[in-house]
């Protein structure tokens, strides 16, 4: 796996915490040079300096808000100014919300689409041609197990991750024989700050919850093998397999009941 990353530049979005920070750590251990981006510059600088010192790699920090319409273009312009060639793109930045869609903040729901969907498309489209020309590299898009069924009370987030999976699998097929890979990582519950930010107190069944360390280690091995879709954890894999077989109406009902048990449905809608 090291030969895939060593002395190549990787761009990791949402790198200041959670899965993004762990992906950056693992890539640094494999000898990759890193461009780290997120909104929080202070945390990025601290991480970048630590990874450079421990692993002997080069790091660059670019603060950007990919939830804004101009965020992706601003990030790409800054990367061009750095004069580095990105061999691996990790679209990890993401945000979610929970609650009845009709009552959620409209601006935040639009920002979810901008960050989880539009920025993935823009960054991939901009950086992929150079990878194809070089005949190496790839794109790792972080999706979620919620991509495989509609999720009431997380309607926008679930739909955005379904897009990421479909988009990634289509691009991966187009890349056959090019030497460039694309993979959608679909983690289930992971012990990060994402759930709290989305307004979910309990992230899921304890047996399905994985650590960021295990999730990322397994995911990068799958990426190196050339897999196109990876679901870490046995329980999560079984859930996704079931979602592919069961009727959509049943899956939607089950997801709705789960969200109600988690307390994300308005009390007047509970049954």
What Rg, in angstroms, do the CA atoms define?
A: 18 Å
CATH architecture: 3-Layer(aba) Sandwich
Identify the CATH class: Alpha Beta
Let me know the average pLDDT.
89
CATH superfamily heading: NAD(P)-binding Rossmann-like Domain
Provide the succession of SSEs. HEHEHEHEHEHEHHEHH
Which blocks of ≥5 consecutive residues have pLDDT under 50?
A: 194-203, 266-271
**Strands, count:** 7
- Note the gap between the termini: 50 Å
**Structural class assignment:** alpha/beta
Beta-strand percentage range: 5-15%
Instruction: Let me know the largest β-sheet.
Output: 7 strands, parallel
Percentage of residues in helical conformation: 40-55%
- Say what the CATH topology is: Rossmann fold
Number of helices: 10
Shape type? globular
In what order do the strands lie side by side in the largest sheet? Answer: 3-2-1-4-5-6-7
List the helices and strands and how they pair.
Elements (H helix, E strand, L loop, with lengths): L1 H4 L3 E5 L4 H12 L3 E6 L2 H15 L3 E5 L7 H12 L3 E6 L14 H29 L3 E5 L12 H20 L6 E5 L8 H5 L13 H14 L3 E2 L3 H12 L2 H14 L10
Parallel strand pairs: 1-2, 1-4, 2-3, 4-5, 5-6, 6-7
Helix pairs in contact: 2-3, 2-8, 4-5, 5-6
